[in-house]
Every structure is written in structure tokens, then in C-alpha cells.
Amino acid sequence: MASVLRSALKSIREKGLRGFFRELKDEGFLSALLDGNLMQTKIHNIGATLVGVDKFGNKYYQKLGDTQYGRHRWVEYAYKNRYNASQVPPEWHGWLHFVTDHTGDELLLLKPKRYGIEHKENFSGEGDEYIYHSKGHSLNPGQRDWTRFEPWQPKKD
Amino acid sequence: MGLAQIASGALHRSTRFTYKPYILRSIVSTPDRHNSGASAAAAAPAEPDLPPRTPVGAPGSTSPIRKTQLSRLSIAGNCRMCLVEVEKSPKPVASCAMPALPGMKIKTDTPLAKKAREGVMEFLLMNHPLDCPICDQGGECDLQDQSMAFGSDRGRFTDTKRSVVDKNLGPLVKTVMTRCIQCTRCVRFATEVAGVQDLGMLGRGSGEEIGTYVEKLMTSELSGNVIDICPVGALTSKPFAFKARNWELKGTESIDVSDAVGSNIRIDSRGPEVMRILPRLNEDINEEWISDKTRFFYDGLKRQRLSDPMVRGADGQFKVVSWHDALALVAEVIHQVKPEEIVGVAGKLSDAESMITLKDFLNKMGSNNIWCEGNGSNPNADLRAGYIMNSSISGLEKADVFLLVGTQPRFEAAMVNARIRKTVQATNAEVGYVGPPADFNYVHQHLGTGPETLTELAEGRHPFSSILSTAKNPAIIVGAGIFDRKDKDAIISVIDAIAKKSNAVTPGWNGLNVLLLNAAQAAALDLGLVPESDKSIESAKFLYLMGADDVNLEKLPADAFVVYQGHHGDKSVYRANLILPASAFSEKEGTYANTEGCAQTTVPAVPTVGDARDDWKIIRALSEVAGARLPYDTIGAIRARLGTVAPNLLHVDERVAATYSTSSLRPEVKEKMDKRAPFETSIENFYMTDSISRASKIMAQCSALLRK
């Protein structure tokens, strides 16, 4: 606890009070006051090692030793207000779920060059424009025109 | 395990040994015969080794007579797939061409006949390409069926196959002449039924091929039928090429509306679109043929369709509105005009149900100015014999003299023309024709062009009148084109006089016929769609056009409100103030009476397009919005109403003959014929007569290429 206080005082000294509060907000400490999950993560983070940061800004922590096995790897999402598990890109998924001990930065080299596509999080429930519509779905923008007749068009004169 | 196997093997071997003759016999190509032989052999193993015999023609007999024989064509015996064994005949004989004689013993299912057919099949397939997967006939190919039934499982032919240059037969018939097996069905059809000498057989032996002798399009209004009769994929439909396979299609048995014949058709559809139209056998109307317009105007059903109710705004542009608003607007306007200023015109494709609904609705609104286009402004609907073909279409075959007055049946009703041609070919019947110079595909005498020829015939001064008066069953056919003439009644009274002089109307024969032009005409006259005044359109303030596109709107007052209810944006929509989209004949249930007065019904084959509705439903809804609710809600209830007005329309598929002959009951006609006005051609372009065929691209191609 003392070390936390010390580092906080240090950053106030470096950035000034205003900069300190901005950083508190950006790092999610303010949202953590209302969000138990995030607060839990933040408390968990104390003393953990930061293994890597992916391209979305998600931070991957690991704490060995006094942590229960199986709970020793976790992620702190980049978005502090709207986070879900689908924000973890595939290269980090294996490390995070104990499938592999290789970190995402290492596995990124295995990503297929030719057909590998960018990871997209699941936007379900975030609005119609984010929903995936299959090829035959009427809301798919590339939907084929199944109208089998030509309507009469009144002449514009 | 081992023991069991040995035991079963021994059993098996012993069985095989016992039934050895059957096992030897079992090498046959058709499995069903194999099985029947097996059961017979199992039941009585002592029987001699012969398959069970069934007499020729009995159900279950495998009589092979199916290839080149079509009952309406002459017998050629070309393909020889119907070979049978005849006792005391040294060779197998082609059963299609061999008359059966008393005492003849014909065996259709002997090893000899089967071997002969298998050999013939091998020859037929020798030069036939193996392109079934890309052939449009695939799935409905007679050769495929025959080779399945009689063919060998392998060929012995190792040489190169013959190839033949494709012929250009026009925009309707696609040719792949390499596939041709020289059955000469198309040649026989063209010369015998269609009456064009375009197709023929060229060359001999392996150089034999079907073709037009010189590069020439097939100019017949029945040319599409060669597609049906071609047993292989040599002649296929050009518009249908590579569009669908026949097993994907849903067939709906319906009625054609492109002319007044009411040909029986099958509408083949896939999902929401009509893919093709084929004829259906009806000996009394179209036999097994249909005209090219009937067969190929279906693509017009997919183009220029009215799919939403539209209102013309103050700026002259159409705007899509809801049904609710459209009907409310019509109801508002119809109450603002005087009842006698309301006029309704039914179109040439209207069904009887919608016409009676329109008539009932306008009568409730106080107007009785309703007619059907094509019937003229003053039609005579009093006596049914006065507007239908009294001798019936099939009855024309009994006639021995024809007198055609102002009609060109080849273009007005191609199937009736085929019937006349059949009679002329079979019995050398005389044909006299009064009218403008026209194309006929049989021998005829052109008697004159105008009404004065009719007077000469009536007075017996014309050379043809002696032929008419000596005829046993003369058939006088009057074209519906004269309905538009001012002196129509005078002409009909003169024709009555001609009929009286000859034996046209006798107790057993009524040969005084009218050949109508449109599908709706007969039913409209049956229902009494007769306007009160022939000047009604000049004084109309509210005009209800139910699919009427050929009505002359020039004299319509500029402030008249025109409602167009129909399925195609054709001619009249440009004058309309409000458009109500309706369904076409392929999408609705409707009763049509053809020119001989036979009522037939269409059946929906495809769903309606867009927001369109059935004609009668629109008027029924409109009547409710206008506050004059019509008392029927279902098609059955409308038919009950039809039955009270014209009971003959309920006798579906059976012709109800007219009760009285008109000639003795007609009132005296005072007016004289207009001698200076000759008869006119009623159909300018055979391929474009109604809103559907005018929207069709295929018909546009045909009229560009095939009309001279």
C-alpha cells in the first residue's frame, strides 16, 4: 500500500495535480469506483507483471507465486467502460486461457499473411450497423436482388 | 462363424444349382422384366425359359410404340425403335407403320425384338453427341428414355462422330443439329400442320440432315411446336435456353388469354417467375399445339409490371401511395360525378369474375356504361348464337365449305386456322375469303374485299354462291373486326341472308360463326357488358379502365378522372390519374369463355408481383370504401353470382351451345352497308396484341424479324 501511495505522489510531482487526475481517469481508476470488476482487476494488478500489450491497448498481466493456479493470468481491457471478452485478439487468446505459454506478441508471427484478417470484436447488441447479416439476409448490404420482375417506371418529363 | 459361412455358402450354391436356367436368363437390361421373370421362374421352374407375355395394348405391356408416332402427323417409320416380331415375318417390322391384320400374331417382348431395338438404339446413338449434361432437353428427352429402356450399356462405336452445322430458324427455335436423329417429326409438322414448306430433309445416308433448303427463318405462327415434338435436343426453345431444368419447374394447368381460342396450356414456373409455357392436350380446342404468341409471350409477365398503387399529382408525376389512400381517392371522386358520367371499360384480358364485379359496382353507383374493348360501341349481346362460334372449333372439321368474312384466322386465332387447314387438307374443302389481301397457308379463293361481295353472295350472283348453296355443312366465319364498323348490323343481316340461302343453319349443324379476337370478349357479352350509349366516352367524367389499353381515349374530356386498374404499364396508364395494380392471368383464378363459348378457368401459377391484388378483390374493396358494398367476399360467391347472370360460365371445360339461332330472331335492319369501306385487317401485328405481349422482348424480336 505504501508503494502505491509513493508512486501516486511521484506522478503528482511529475505531472502536476491536473495531469495526475487525467491519468487516473484514463487508466480507469475513476470508473473503477463504480465498477467492481474493474476495481478487482486494478487491485489484482498490484505486484503483477505486465506480460504484454496488444494492438488494441489491452494489458495482459501475470502473477505467479501467491496467486491461485488458473487465476494467474488476466487482462485489463483498453476500454474501461465497455469491455467484453471478444476484445481479446486471437493471438492473445491462447496465452490468456492457458492453452499456450507463448505470449501474443510471439504468436502474432504465426498469423497467416495472405488470408489472415483483422480481429473484430463482437458488436452484438450495439446497433443494427454492427450486426453480422449472412449473405442471404435481407439486411446484408451485398444482398442479391431477388425481384424477378421489372416494375413499370413512370416517365419523368 | 466359419461353420455358418460354409453352411450358407453351401446353401447358396445349392440354390444356384437348382435355379440355373433363371440365373442364365438374368442378364437382361431392364430390371422390372428381370424380376417378373424371376417370380415366374421361381413359381414354376419347369416352364420353358420365356418371359411372361402380355397382349399388345394391355396395361403393363411394354409396347414400344412411342417414338416417331404422333397421332396428328403422318407415319414415317424412320427411327425404327418400335420394332416387333410378327409371326411368319422373316424380319422384325416397325409397328408404327404396319397395319394390324386379323390373325396376325405380334410379339412385342421377345428376345428378337429386344435385340433388334438394342441394335437400332446403338445406331441412333452412333452419331448422337454425348452432351446430355448441357442439353436443354435433358430430363424430358425421348432418346434418353428410350436408351434407358432399350439401350445397351456400352457402345462399340469408335469412329469420329458426325457433326452438322446449326441452322438459324429465327428468334424462337434454337437448333443444335448435331443432336438430330432424323425422325422428321419437325418436317412433317411444318408441312402438314403449320403449312409452311420451310423445313426439309437434305442429303442421303450419313449425310442426311434436316434444314431449311436456303438460309431462311421459319415464318410460321406455330413454329414453337417443333420444340415440343422434337424427341431430342435438336430443336429447343431459344428464350428458354439454359434457363432451367424441367425437374425444377412446377407445372400449373391453365388457360391462355392471348387470343380468343383459350388454348389449354401448362405454365411452368420456378419460384415467382414463369419459365415457359407448354401446350396441354385438348382435342376440342387446341389439339396439342399452341401458337407462338401463347408460348413465348410469358417474358412480358416479368416486364413493365405495375406493382404499387400510384396517383398522378398536381405536377403530372406519378407518386406511390398506399392502397388505403388510393381507394379513398377513387371513392371520393366517384361520388363527385354524376352517375351517367361514370364509364367502365373492361380490357381484353379480363376474366368473367372481375367483369361482373365491375358491372355490379358501377351499376350500384348508378351507371350502366360498361363494355369490353373489342366488342365495339354497340355490341349485340342479346342472343348468344350471335357472337360465338356455333359450330365449335372441333366441329369445323365437319365443314366442307368455308366462307371467311373479314377475318384472317391465321393471325386472329392461329389454332382455329390450324383446324381449318386440317379440314382443307383432309377433305379438300373449299375456302372463300372476303377481306383485304391476306396470308393463308391453304388453298383459298379471294372473293372480294368489301361488303359488295357479300351482297353478291346473298343474291346468288357470285360464282362462289353455287359452291356455298350445294355444300352440306358450310361454315361461315365472321371476324370480330366488323364489330367496330358502323354498319355492323347491316353486314350481319346480309350474312344471315347468305346463311339462309345455303344450309349453314340446319337442325344438325350451325355453321354461322363469329370468330372473336380477345379472351374476354365472349364472357363480356355473356354477362351483358353493353354500354347504354355509344357516345359515353365523350361525356365521361370518371373512366374506370380495367386493363383496357386499346380503347380510344382521344375523345375523352381533359378533366375526366381516369382510373387504370391493370397489370402492365402499357398505353392507357399515360392518360390515367390513378393506377391500381392488378394481377395477370398467370397469378389469379379466373373464368374465361373462348370464342366457341367454352368456359375455362385459369389457376394461379406464380404469386402476384409487388403490392398487386386480384381484379375482383380491388373492386370489392373499392365498393366498400365507396359505401356500396358488393355482397360477395369469395371467388365462389362471385361464381354463384355469375351463375345467375350467365349460367354457361359455370360449366367449366364443357361447351354449352347457344340455344337459339339468331337469324330468325334478329330485328329488321334499316341501315345499309357502307359499300365504299372495305373490310380491314383486325390484327396488324400478330406478335403484339395485348399489354403482356407488347411488354415482351421475345415478341418484339419476333415482330422485328418474322413480319415481312
From TrEMBL, chain A:
It comes from the Eukaryota. It is a peripheral membrane protein. GO terms for biological process: response to oxidative stress. It holds the Pfam family NDUFA12. Coiled coil: none annotated. Keywords: Electron transport, Membrane, Mitochondrion, Mitochondrion inner membrane, Respiratory chain, Transport. The keyword Acetylation does not apply. Its main location: mitochondrion. The keyword Membrane applies. It is found in: Mitochondrion inner membrane. One of its GO terms (cellular component) is respiratory chain complex I. Belongs to the complex I NDUFA12 subunit family. Accessory subunit of the mitochondrial membrane respiratory chain NADH dehydrogenase (Complex I), that is believed not to be involved in catalysis. Complex I functions in the transfer of electrons from NADH to the respiratory chain. The immediate electron acceptor for the enzyme is believed to be ubiquinone. This is NADH dehydrogenase [ubiquinone] 1 alpha subcomplex subunit 12.
TrEMBL record, chain B:
Residues 249-305 form the 4Fe-4S Mo/W bis-MGD-type domain. This is NADH dehydrogenase [ubiquinone] iron-sulfur protein 1, mitochondrial. Core subunit of the mitochondrial membrane respiratory chain NADH dehydrogenase (Complex I) that is believed to belong to the minimal assembly required for catalysis. Complex I functions in the transfer of electrons from NADH to the respiratory chain. The immediate electron acceptor for the enzyme is believed to be ubiquinone. This is the largest subunit of complex I and it is a component of the iron-sulfur (IP) fragment of the enzyme. It may form part of the active site crevice where NADH is oxidized. Belongs to the complex I 75 kDa subunit family. InterPro entries: 2Fe-2S_ferredoxin-like_sf, 2Fe-2S_ferredoxin-type, Mopterin_OxRdtase, Mopterin_OxRdtase_4Fe-4S_dom, NADH_UbQ_OxRdtase_75kDa_su_CS, NADH_UbQ_OxRdtase_ferredoxin, NADH_UbQ_OxRdtase_Gsu, NADH_UbQ_OxRdtase_Gsu_4Fe4S-bd. GO terms for molecular function: 2 iron, 2 sulfur cluster binding; 4 iron, 4 sulfur cluster binding; metal ion binding; NADH dehydrogenase (ubiquinone) activity; oxidoreductase activity, acting on NAD(P)H. Residues 112-151 form the 4Fe-4S His(Cys)3-ligated-type domain. It catalyses: a ubiquinone + NADH + 5 H(+)(in) = a ubiquinol + NAD(+) + 4 H(+)(out). It is found in: Mitochondrion inner membrane. Residues 34-69 are annotated as: Disordered. GO terms for cellular component: mitochondrial inner membrane. Pfam families: Fer2_4 (PF13510), Fer4_NDSU1 (PF22151), Fer4_Nqo3 (PF22117), Molybdopterin (PF00384), NADH-G_4Fe-4S_3 (PF10588), NADH_dhqG_C (PF09326). Its EC number is 7.1.1.2. Residues 60-69 have a biased composition (Polar residues).
